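Hi team, as promised in this morning's meeting, here are the two structures we talked about. I've kept the exact order from the run log so nobody has to guess. The first one is mostly here for context; it's the second one we should focus on when we meet again. Sequence first, then the predicted structure tokens.
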Amino acid sequence: MEETHVLSGGPYSSPYPIKWLLDVRFICGVIFFLTGFIINVISDTILRKIRSNNEKGYRIPSGFLFSFVSCPNYLGEIIEWLGWAILTWSIAGLSFFIWTVANLLRRALSHHKWYKKEFSNYPPKRQALIPFVL
């Protein structure tokens, strides 16, 4: 049934045949997307818990990927869009990924710089966005 399409959004979208669901690009993309989603949700939960204690001022987030980077929620979102770009294998997916990196990379660097300025005890080996790299 090659004529059956999934993920169809009408006349303005690319049709995906059913066999696309078994393509290695689709499967890898879904794995990346779900991994990024989980990273994003856990990181945002940690940030919300810090702010829900009714304490005044800011605290250094810790635990999970905050042990390695200042903005793991941004890292998770970037991984999500990478997964989307791979699983759709489309120019639109790639465009969203590039836009997300361009937007969140700058924000992560800015947040990291702010943390280092505000907290003298900020972990010196913690990176802005990518563990052990950036």
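And here is the second protein, the one for discussion:
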Amino acid sequence: SWNWGRGRPSGEVAEVVEEGKAEVTSSKGNTVTRNARDGDPAVKITRNRGNDVVKLAHELNEVKET
């Protein structure tokens, strides 16, 4: 999960990008990117409701193993 206003949306990790750029395309066609940093990878997250997202690892509150 991550903080979004007063909510804490969540999703499933689809990919962890250690080097380079991770990107997803929103339902409106916008491209959202995050550049991986040393020790702070970019994480692609798929969601059942809403757009898929991409976050840096430090932006995530918790990760649960499935």
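Starting points for discussion:
Residues 45 and 53 are 5 Å apart (CA to CA).
Residues 12-59 form one domain.
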